[in-house]
Each structure stands twice: as C-alpha cells, then as structure tokens.
Amino acid sequence: MKRLPMRKIRDVLRLSAEGLSTRQIEASLGIGRTTLRGYLARACAAGLSWPLPPDLSETELEQRLFPRTAQETSRQAGQPDWAHIHNELRRKGVTLSLLWEEYRADHPEGYGYSRFCELYTRWEGKLARSGIIRSPVPITSDQ
C-alpha cells in the first residue's frame, strides 16, 4: 500500500465518519479502494476514529497507523559499522566475505551477503564522493 500524506488520511477518516461509502470517498480523494480500506482497517486497529484528538500531530498519527515492526527494529539495531569494516579491509588477508560471516554470527537475522556487499559499496561511494577517500593517482609515462 502506497503511503498517503497524513492530511489525506485525516480526510479519509473524516469522510468515513460522515457516512460516505468507500466508492464515494475513493472518487472524492482520488485513491484506490484497496488503499482506502487498508487505511480504515489500520485506523480501526489503532483505535482511531473521527474526530481525531486535537493534540494528535501528524507524526503521532503516522506512528499509530504504521507502528514499527520487530523486523524493522532489529534491522536498525543490526546495522553494520561500515567505518570499522572499511578499516578491517585494509588489513592483510581480511575480505568482505570474512567480515560478513562475522557480522552474521552476531546478527543471524541480518543482511545476506549480496545485500551486505551492496550496502558497503554504497557507503564506500559516499566516502569517495565526499573526498575522504582519494582514488589512486594513475602512473603515467612522464613520471
């Protein structure tokens, strides 16, 4: 389900409370029926109904409608220390595969090898673009 702006979700809840059918809400707001029903189900599961509490911010509404799952939380906690990995790769005999195996021993639900390599390469690219890592100077015949 594509996330809508919180303003539009508030409109969904308001129009539903006013007694409009899902088809009427769908036509009024220009959103799909499945998306509409998904948001109404989320609001019901979160115990939200119209009118929403006046002190409920958009951030709080989003957190109540989209609570973090255990998997998302564990992924954040299991984020590799890319700087440490980068430094370890400078040592002789250390490979990305070896570092990934150590990472997976500590985080069994962590990234697979290909995703681990992709994320490291992306992180390393950010360093190169920022100028922290300089690419080797090519040797020319003039030198």
Strand content: under 5%
Main sheet record: none
| Averaged pLDDT | 82
Spatial gap, N to C terminus: 59 Å
The count of domains is 2
Instruction: Give the C-level CATH assignment of the largest domain.
Output: Mainly Alpha
| Radius of gyration of CA atoms, rounded to a whole number | 24 Å
- Helix content range of the residues, please? 55-70%
* Spatial shape: elongated
Helical stretch tally:
8
Judged by helices, strands and strand pairing, the structural class is mainly alpha
**Secondary-structure element sequence?**
HHHHHHHH
Q: What ranges have pLDDT less than 50 throughout 5 or more consecutive residues? A: none
* CATH topology (level 3) name of the largest domain: Arc Repressor Mutant, subunit A
The total of beta strands comes to 0
CATH architecture classification name of the largest domain = Orthogonal Bundle
Any overview of this molecule?
Helix content is 60%, strand content 0%. It has two domains: 6-65, Arc Repressor Mutant, subunit A (Orthogonal Bundle); 72-130. The chain has helices at residues 6-17, 22-29, 33-45, 58-65, 70-77, 82-89, 96-106, 113-130. By secondary structure, the chain is mainly α. The model has no long low-confidence stretch (mean pLDDT 82). Helix 1 (6-17) packs across helix 3. It is elongated and about 70 Å long.
